[in-house]
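Run log // design_07
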């Protein structure tokens, strides 16, 4: 296992049909990724169906079978996150497992990342291995082409403000807009060091 996907990132990338491409950009196949054990259940009922719609969630369920369940982290890492309201138990499991095993995390939960940056030991353990959605979209623009990615992310324009802004018809330079959001996060999330999309081919 090399790459962990939080629920938000898994759903958004899969809805766009770029989950395999994103894993490839990050040097992994789906079989080398990890996801939360509750994800299939969450897609069948609950907040994900409200957020992404029943049709989209039903289409994502088969993908969960291609991605292994994340390894359980030790209490030594989990306990540091247990009483932080902004980090839910699922995110805690993802962050703790990544910190302990030296894995990369694709996360769409900015609220959790804002809290994580202040937790002792995590910025050092996860330096350069937190991949925000903006960063992977930059790399995918290079990998697939901005025009192709613009078509693929269309289902997300109603669900994600950054995608809506960066890939709207009025945005002449989607990559430049994504870089602007990404650089803002780099500053905001210090001392967490985010994965640099330049390393994945972003320009």
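design_07 sequence
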């Amino acid at each position: 296992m090399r790459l962990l996907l939080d629920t938000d990132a898994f759903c958004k990338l899969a809805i766009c049909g770029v989950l395999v491409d994103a894993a490839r950009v990050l040097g992994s196949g789906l079989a080398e990724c990890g996801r939360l054990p509750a994800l299939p259940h969450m897609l069948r009922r609950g907040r994900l169906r409200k957020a992404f719609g029943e049709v989209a969630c039903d289409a994502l369920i088969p993908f969960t079978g291609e991605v292994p369940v994340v390894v359980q982290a030790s209490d030594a890492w989990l306990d540091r996150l247990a009483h932080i309201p902004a980090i839910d138990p699922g995110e805690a499991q993802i962050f703790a497992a990544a910190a302990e095993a030296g894995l990369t995390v694709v996360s769409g939960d900015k609220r959790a990342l804002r809290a994580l940056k202040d937790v002792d030991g995590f910025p050092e353990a996860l330096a350069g291995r937190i991949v925000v959605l903006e960063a992977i979209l930059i790399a995918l623009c290079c990998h697939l082409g901005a025009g192709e990615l613009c078509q693929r992310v269309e289902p997300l324009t109603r669900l994600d403000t950054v995608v809506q802004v960066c890939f709207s018809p009025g945005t002449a330079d989607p990559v430049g807009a994504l870089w602007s959001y990404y650089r803002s996060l780099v500053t905001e999330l210090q001392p967490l060091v985010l994965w640099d999309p330049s390393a994945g081919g972003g320009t």
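Residues 3-200 form one domain.
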